[in-house]
Amino acid sequence: MNQRIFGKTGRAVSEIGLGTWQLGTRWGDPFNHEEAMKILETAEENGITFIDTADVYNGGKSEETIGEYVAAHPGRFYVTTKCGRRLNPHTAEMYTPEAVAGFIDGSLRRMNLERLDMILLHCPPTSVFRRDDIFGELEKQKQAGKLADYGVSIEKVEEGVQAMEYDISAMEVIFNMFRLKPLDRLFPLAAEKNVGIIARVPLASGLLTGRYTKDTVFGPQDHRTYNRDGAAFDKGETFSGIPYDLGLEAAEALKAVFGTSDLAPYAIRWILMHPEVSVVIPGASKASQVAANVKAAELPALTDAQMNAVREIYDRCLRETIHPQW
Q1: What phi and psi values does residue 279 have, to the nearest 5 degrees?
Q2: Tens-digit pLDDT profile for the chain (326 aa)?
Q3: Among 114, 144, 235, 269, who pairs with 230 as Cys (CB 3.0-4.6 Å)?
Q4: What is the sign, positive or negative, of the torsion defined by CA atoms of 108, 157, 194, 130?
């Protein structure tokens, strides 16, 4: 597994990491601790050293399980967690320095750590990215030794630009073959400021696997059923915000470009073609998906013709819908 330097942290991490929104469970199913541990074991066996989690994933069980595994395998992983989505209601007014401090203590407790590698604000309301008191509290917690570094997870490019006015070390952003806007302004600025980029939702909630059709049915507790119009959270988290039928059309065009029905490794390899990206974090609800995801690192570099074709499909099919929103 190739290693990349994670922004101003100076740490080398595997270029393919592990996203844990679904660690040990499929959408709506009970948490399976045994499967979660198997996923983490498979990640380690395949050279993954970067894990991304959040305090709300599986009601905190994701952090607890990761903490358990990391304790048994010290020094093997760099773990990023996120905070803020426990606030109810999730509004800017609920973000206070005291709340942030409490979230950090909660993550430390669940993972049984004395210091977090990294904590990110978990897609807060846009106005929070201009809050001196919130970023000041993160710096205070860093100076107190409770975390090594901090950053943000964003929905919109403009939020990331604003966040880089502060001394953040990393940023998590939706970036995939259906989401090209970060290339225009966000990535160049991040490179200039040495801010690490974590590319999330790399497979557009599965659309970029190439396996879905108009007849695919998702369960009632699956966000791909209930959040297509943003009923529960930002609709950009579901299929990258793309109307389902339009996403299927674009995926078919991409299959023709790469000459395969299995788009997933090419979708991940496309992300890795961008040097500004420190790590890409495909998720896995079972161990076999981890092994499949890391195969993308073995693919040869994509050709200029392939890269240009992805851009052409985006410009033709998706830009008008996606570019103005995020």
Answers
A1: -160, 145
A2: 999 999 999 999 999 999 999 897 777 678 899 999 999 999 999 999 999 999 999 999 999 999 999 999 999 999 999 999 999 999 999 999 999 999 999 999 999 999 999 999 999 999 999 999 999 999 999 999 999 999 999 999 999 999 999 999 999 999 999 999 999 999 999 999 999 999 999 999 999 999 999 999 999 999 999 999 999 999 999 999 999 999 999 999 999 999 999 999 999 999 999 999 999 999 999 999 999 999 999 999 999 999 999 999 999 999 999 999 99
A3: 235
A4: negative
Name the β-bridge partners of 179.
176
CB 38 within 8 A of CB 287: yes
DSSP notation for 186-243:
HHHHHHHHT-EEEEE-TTGGGGGGT---TT----TTSHHHH-TTSSSS-GGGSGGG--
Q: Which amino acid is at 217?
A: V
Backbone conformation region of residue 300, classed left if phi is above 0, alpha if psi is from -120 to 50, else beta: beta
